[in-house]
Amino acid sequence: MAVTMQDVAARAGVSIKTVSNVVNGYPHIRPATRERVEEAIDHLGYRINETARSLRTRRTDMITLAVPELSLPYFAELADSVIQAADDRGLTVLIEQTSHGREREVDVLTGKRRNMTDGLIFSPLELGPEDLALFDVDFPLVVLGERVFGAPADHVTMNNVAAAKAATVHLASLGRKRIAVVGGHEGEQVGSAALRTTGYRQGLDEAGLPYDPALVAEAGLWHRSTGAEAMGRLLDDGVEVDGVFALNDALALGALHALHTRRLDVPGDVAVIGFDDIDDARYSVPTLSSVDPGREQIAQTAVDLLVARITGTETGPFRRVVPDSRIIGRESTGDVPEGGEGRPVAVQEGGTEPAQPLTEPVAI
Amino acid sequence: MAVTMQDVAARAGVSIKTVSNVVNGYPHIRPATRERVEEAIDHLGYRINETARSLRTRRTDMITLAVPELSLPYFAELADSVIQAADDRGLTVLIEQTSHGREREVDVLTGKRRNMTDGLIFSPLELGPEDLALFDVDFPLVVLGERVFGAPADHVTMNNVAAAKAATVHLASLGRKRIAVVGGHEGEQVGSAALRTTGYRQGLDEAGLPYDPALVAEAGLWHRSTGAEAMGRLLDDGVEVDGVFALNDALALGALHALHTRRLDVPGDVAVIGFDDIDDARYSVPTLSSVDPGREQIAQTAVDLLVARITGTETGPFRRVVPDSRIIGRESTGDVPEGGEGRPVAVQEGGTEPAQPLTEPVAI
DNA sequence: CGGTTAGCCTACAACGTTGGAAAGCAACGC
DNA sequence: GCGTTGCTTTCCAACGTTGTAGGCTAACCG
Number of structural domains, chain A? Predict the structure, then answer.
C-alpha cells in the first residue's frame, strides 16, 4: 500500500526510529546515515502519515475557525487573514460555517463539530451572555466579536464604542446635523449593534446633537440588501438625513445603493460612513469611508493567543485584546476628492486587559 | 487524561469492541447492552478520538479546498458553497490559500500541503497545461477552472466560451457597437482569460461587429483595482466605447468605478456586463449584469465527484462536467429599470463528457 | 590504558481505534 | 436430544508513528 517508515527503514538498513529521527530533524545522526535515509525517502516517495503522528503526539497542527458564513465579505477577509496567520505558524485551518442557526454554534463549542483540531477560533453570532457556560470548554479557545464578554477564554474584540463614537463625531465635524444610524437592533443589549449604537449616541452627545429615534433604521441581518431596505425606509418615510453611520460596510453599501436609486448625492446630500473597512469600500461608487477595526491584527492576535494555549506557553488568566482601530476617510464623506485614495483621519488605541474583570464588563 | 473507549467499556462492563460497535451503529446489539454503553458514554462524557479512528480506517472525512484567496469574492462564495455541499455529505473542509505563488500550487498537488485529507478540490491559478504531469496524483482530485484541461482527474469547469459569446451578443443586441473587453491576458493561450476572450470574438463575429484591438484592455490580476485601471486607461486614451464586457465581476465593478469617476453614465453612455455573478453584482451602483456560471452546481458536482472517488463508488474514466450558465440582466445593461430585480436573459446548457478526449481539448 | 563521556542507533511499548475471526449462547428444526 | 443457525459479544492483531530507556562505539581524560 502506502510507503511507511518500515519500508524506508528496510531500504536504508536502519531502524524505524532512526527514520523517524531523520524526519523530525533530530540532530545526532551521522551524516552518512541521514543520507541513506533521505535517499530511501526520495526513492520510495515516502510521505509521513500525519494521522499516525497525530495519534502519537496528540497534536494535529490544525485549528478550527468557526464563522457565520464566508459569503459575508467581512468574514471572508477575516478567514483569509486567519489562514495566513495560521500558515505562518505551521497550522492548517478548518472552517466551520455556523450560519445555519444557533444549534450549529452550540455544536461547535460542544465539540460535535470540532473534528480533530488542536483549538478553536470562534466568532459567534447567535450565542450571547446567557450561554456563557457553554464557553467553559476543555480545549483551547479564542473568542472573537462582541456577543460574549467574560467567557473563560481569550477574547479578541474591537474598539466598538470608541470607534463608533469617533465615526459619528467625524460626520458631525463635517457639518452634518441629521445623522442616521443604519443597522440597529431594537432592544438588544449585547453584540456589535448595541455597542456601536452606544458609540453613536456618545458621538451625538459629544457633538452636541440631539438624539432622534426617527434617525435609527433597524436591520436584523447585516447584508447589503437589508441596508438598502433600511435606508430606503428612512428616505421613503421622509426623514430628513444628511449623514449616515452604517453599523457595517455591507449595510453602508446597501445604503449607498438606496441613496443612489433615490437620486441623492453622496457626499453632497448625504455623507456615509461604514464599519469594517472591507475591500469593497475602496471600490464602491463613491468609495466608502469606514472604520478599520484592525482585522489583520485581530487575526494575528487570535492565532497567537490560541497557539500559546495549545503549546502551553501561556497558562495564566484569560486576556481580552483590543487592536487599534482607525477611521479611513474616502469619497463618501468627502474626505478625499473623487478618484483620491482613502486616508486615516483618526485612530482609537486598543489594549489588553483581563478577560474577566472584577466588575461588570465595560463596553470598550 | 481524556476518556477512552477503555473507560467506557469498564464502566459498562463490556469489551472495548462492543463500545466501538455501539458508537458505530452496529445493528446486532442487545438493547440492554446498548443502553448500558450509552449511559457510560454520557456519564463519562466520552468523545471518540477521531485521530485514532482515522489511523485505523484510513479515512478522515476531511477534504482540502485549495483556492487562490478568500478575499476574492468569487472564491469566498465558492468556498461557502463547497463547505455547505461537503457538510451535507458529512465532510469537513480544510482550506489552503495558494495565492502566494506557483510553488504553493505545486505543494498542494505534491501533498506537501495536504495534511490528512481524503481528497482535494483544486482551483489552480498559476499552473497550466505544461504542468499536466503534476496532476497525476495518487489521491482523489477534482480540478476546477480553466487552467488545465485533460488532467487525469475529474474536472468541473464553466461554459466559458459560449457564455462569453452570449454576453457579447447580448451587449450587441442592445445596440452597442463599440464593445470593449476588460481583463485580457495578451498572448495567453489557456485559462479563463483566453477562453472568455475567444467567446468575445465569436460574439462580435456573430453580431457582425469588427474586432478592434484598441478595445482590448489588459489586466493581469482580476481585482477591482486592476479593472478600474484598465477601464481608465481605455477611456483616457480616448477610445470610443459604448459597451464593456469585463472578464469577471471584480473587473466590472472596477470598470464601473472608473466610468463613474469620468462622469460617464451606465448604461446610458456605456453598458457593462461582468462574469461570475458574485453577490456584489446585485448591490453595486448601478446593479451589474453578469454571467452566472452555476456556482452552486459547480460546488455540489465537485464534492459529489470527489466523494465518489473517495468511496470508490466511481472508478471509471475521468469526467468533465460543465454546469448550465445564465446571463443575468440588471441595470448596467438596462435590462431592468433602476431599482428592478435582475433576471435571466439567456441560458447556455452544460453537460458531461470524458475529461480526456481523444483529440486536443476543445474549448467549451 | 581503564574508565568515563558523548554521540549514534535500536528495541519495545504505547497512542485509541476498528477489522476479522472466533466463541458463547439461545432458539430452532428434525 | 443434538446438530444447526443466527444473534451477540469478545479476543487479538493491526493502523504508522514517537517516547523512553538502553546499548554499542569511538573518543577523550587523567
Answer: 3
Q: Read off the pLDDT of residues B134-183 as tens digits, 9 standing for 90 and up.
A: 999 999 999 999 889 989 999 999 999 999 999 999 999 999 999 999 99
3-class SS at A352?
strand
Burial class (CB in 10 A: 0-12, 13-18, 19+), A296: middle
Q: Which residues of A touch B77 (CB under 8 A)?
A: 70-71
Three-state SS string over B74-91 comes to: HHHHHHHHHHHHHHHCCC
Put simply, the answer to whether A84 touches B97 (Cβ < 8 Å) is yes
Structural domain includes residue A340: yes
CB-strand contact B49/C, under 7 Å = yes
Closest chain B C-alpha to A207 CA, distance in angstroms: 32
Segments forming the whole domain that contains residue A10: 5-48
Please list every residue in chain A whose beta carbon sits closer than 8 Å to the beta carbon of residue B257: 283-285, 287
CATH number of the domain where residue A300 is located = 3.40.50.2300
Predicted model pTM: 0.92
Q: Distance (Å, rounded) from C-alpha A254 to C-alpha A240?
A: 18
Q: What is the DSSP secondary-structure string of B11-69?
A: HHTS-HHHHHHHHTT-S---HHHHHHHHHHHHHHT----HHHHHHHHS--SEEEEEES-
Judge whether residue A116 contacts strand C, using its CB and a 7 Å cut-off. Answer: no
Task: Dihedral sign for Cα B300, B303, B304, B305, please.
Answer: positive
